[in-house]
Specification:
35% of the residues lie in helices and 15% in strands. It folds into two domains: 120 residues, Alpha-Beta Complex (Aspartate Aminotransferase, domain 1), CATH 3.90.1150.10; 224 residues, Aspartate Aminotransferase, domain 2 (3-Layer(aba) Sandwich), CATH 3.40.640. Strands 2-8-7-6-5-3-4 form a seven-stranded mixed beta sheet, sandwiched between helices. It is of the alpha/beta class.
């Protein structure tokens, strides 16, 4: 099988797996201690978490704190539900469902328009009572990179906080300037089941999960040393490999443009993370295409909305008709994708697409 769905999740880095194994030891080992226990095994586990926190923080802006969570979705909820202020929450129309649905659930959503190239223009007005602005760094469906610095400045001028979902950018690009940043480990070759919220110093959040207050009083529940150690190892590796990974992805992108010549790219080709190729072909039956290309793992849209039968809200937001959205596929490549993988996958996809006429 060929894996080309790196926006949905990424393969676990061998270094992350190795870092996790020690903290999965059973009764014969010493790595299973509760990191909140005061004895030696607990302190060792806590030290592993502290080390991982430093590796994750090293990829964030200075002057903030990393709060470990169970996912980026939980991090987003902590930021949006725990942030001070009761005013409007301005969210771009192409945010992840974790942001859009939370803003709607809080009854305070104000949706920001997005242009045909997938850019959320910071020249548009914010509500007078805005207290939080949410614009992601890299879109998970079409890969467009947003003008986050401008949005942070605009939020600050409105006396609002700025939350940035950096899930698709973390470990791949310099992280956005923001007041709060949501991160997921499994999008940078770490394990599933762990994420983080970076919070700028001086911002006080209210917890949304109450109990023992284990994670700095903001997130109750026993932390997993294994998952967090894997997250830390993945972050450390990403920092070390960022330039090499970016060069590899760029080479794959350039070859992909040749292989899929004649297809239409959804969103900007320049203001974009080039590990995301979201393309369409008129009249394409994507369900049939995926059925005929079962050895190639790619997406018909965002993995978080797959199976719903609804056209992508992101593709609708950039002005695509339902038929165009439904004839789109997303190909995601990264560190462990080889050129041979990409070429073989493209051959299979193109052959199946051509057979549709």
């Amino acid at each position: 099988m060929i894996y080309l769905d790196c926006q949905a999740t990424t393969p676990l880095a061998p270094e992350a797996r190795e870092a996790m194994l020690r903290w999965l030891d059973g009764p014969e080992g010493t790595g299973f201690g509760n990191p909140h226990s005061p004895h030696r095994m607990g302190r060792q586990a806590a030290a592993a978490i502290d080390a991982a926190r430093e590796y994750v923080a090293a990829l964030c802006p200075p002057g903030g704190t990393v709060i470990f969570t169970g996912s980026a979705t939980e991090a987003i909820n902590l930021a949006m539900r725990g942030a001070p202020g009761e005013g409007s929450i301005s969210v771009s129309a192409i945010e992840h469902a974790a942001v859009l649905d939370t803003a709607e659930a809080l009854g305070r959503a104000h949706v920001l328009n997005v242009a045909a190239d997938g850019q959320c223009n910071p020249s548009q007005d914010l509500p007078d009572n805005v207290s939080l602005v949410c614009v992601m760094q890299v879109n998970n469906e079409i890969g467009t990179v947003q003008p986050t610095l401008d949005w942070h400045r605009k939020a600050k001028a409105a006396n609002a906080l700025y939350l940035c979902d950096v899930v698709q950018a973390f470990g791949k690009q310099e992280v956005a300037s923001a007041d709060m940043i949501a991160i997921s480990a499994h999008k940078l070759h770490g394990p599933k089941g762990v994420g983080a919220l970076w919070v700028r110093d001086g911002i006080e959040l209210a917890p949304i999960i109450t109990g023992g207050g284990q994670e700095q009083g903001l997130r109750s529940g026993t932390l997993s040393p294994a998952l967090i150690a894997g997250f830390g190892a993945a972050a450390k590796l990403a920092a070390e490999r960022m330039e090499d990974d970016a060069a590899h992805v760029e080479a794959l992108w350039n070859r992909a443009l040749e292989l899929f010549d004649g297809w239409t790219i959804n969103g900007s080709t320049t203001a974009r993370w080039h590990g995301n190729l979201n393309i369409r072909r008129e009249g394409l039956d994507v369900a049939r295409l995926m059925s005929e290309c079962r050895t190639v793992m790619f997406s018909a849209g965002s993995a978080c909305a797959s199976g719903s039968g609804r056209p992508s809200h992101v593709l609708r937001a950039i002005g695509l008709r339902d038929a165009q959205a439904k004839s789109s596929i997303r190909i995601g490549f990264g560190r462990y994708t080889t050129m041979d993988d990409l070429e073989a996958a493209a051959q299979a996809i193109m052959s199946a697409a051509d057979s549709q006429g």
